[in-house]
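S1.2 Input.
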Amino acid sequence: MIKIFTGDDRVRAKKEIEKFLGKKYEIIEGAEINLNDLPSIFLGNSLFSETRNILIRDLSTNKSVFEKVPEYLNTPHNIAIFELKLDKRSATYKLLKGNIEIKDFKLPENPDQKLVFNIYNTAKRDGKKAVGMLERIKPEHDPNMFLGLLASQTIKDYQIKQGTKEKKALRELSKIDLEIKSTSLQPWLLIESFLLRLSSL
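S1.3 Output.
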């Protein structure tokens, strides 16, 4: 039997994997598997038992091997596949979903991250509006924590687009970080100035 466990809540996922496999199981790194290994993993017997308990981690990163998993649905072993992220649009996912159990374990969404995302995206179009949004939430937030979340949002933006504007935004934030640590300027003022400048970077 094959089951897939996916998501960023590793603690809950591990508990469910252990319910399925027990406490003792083989661990195989999906990235290291080649096509020739599949018959021995999914169909090969152990010296001590006819049924093996196996955890395969991050198999979908090894695309050519992951695509072959549907061919082994009749495995006599208990095989858990753990994926941090899984492309739900892929043909392999759709085929597996109809035939095996797939459990998703997502961490609860951080409301602060969503808030920062909204302010950051607004600032890319309208700095004044973003500063107005910031004014409303400042009393309940720490500026240094907010800056950290703002930086992580800017990095995500850069990873997706990798444009000149995203590079400039990252440079600006690193300057602000240094200024907060080395000057007596109010952190919120520096963050507001960044939001006001973001649309014109």
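S1.4 Remarks. The chain has a mean pLDDT of 89.
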